[in-house]
Amino acid sequence: MEQTFIMIKPDxxxxxxxxxxxxxxxxxGFSLKGLKLMSVERPFAEKHxxxxxxxxxxxxxxxxxxxxxxxxxxxxxxxxVATGRKIIGATKPSESDPGTIRGDFAVEVGRNVIHxxxxxxxxxxxxxxWFPDGTVNWQSSLHSWIYE
Length: 148
Ligand code: IDP
Hints:
The protein is of the alpha+beta class. It has a single domain (3-135), classed as 2-Layer Sandwich (Alpha-Beta Plaits), CATH 3.30.70. The chain starts with a strand and ends with a helix. It contains eight helices and four strands; from the N terminus they run βααβααβααβαα. The protein has helices at 10-14, 18-28, 42-48, 58-65, 80-88, 101-105, 120-130, 143-146, and strands spanning 3-8, 31-38, 70-76, 114-116. The model has no long low-confidence stretch (mean pLDDT 98). The radius of gyration is 15 Å and the shape is globular.
């Protein structure tokens, strides 16, 4: 089954949105396979965002990610990478639809509350980076009520 890496950024943690965000993924029917609250060091944040290292906003982005604890998660389910991106909404909150996390809770691109992997390949890389000791292997007893 497909997995994605989701991270609630420091603004989301500070604003008390952890429960709300977890709830949206849970209610959809996805399964939580990994969860930890952690503070990351600058080199780790730079590694996570290495594909954006040439962007003018890179340093500000890294400052943002290391500015407080983040909630790192692995969610599992059918099409969870693409559907997770839809639940999160467009990168710029001014373009995120109402009903999405960024559409409902964010105003600025540099304070957009949440990260979600943008491809299955990147999800695998990000899960390996953030959960080097692996995740929890379990199956919800609701599985047959969610999948036909
Ligand atoms: P994504 O988070 O929706 O996948 P990316 O383009 O991968 O979007 O950018 C990563 C993060 O970098 C964004 O979520 C946002 O926090 C930040 N970011 C992207 N574009 C800008 C910008 O133009 N100014 C400031 N921050 C930006």
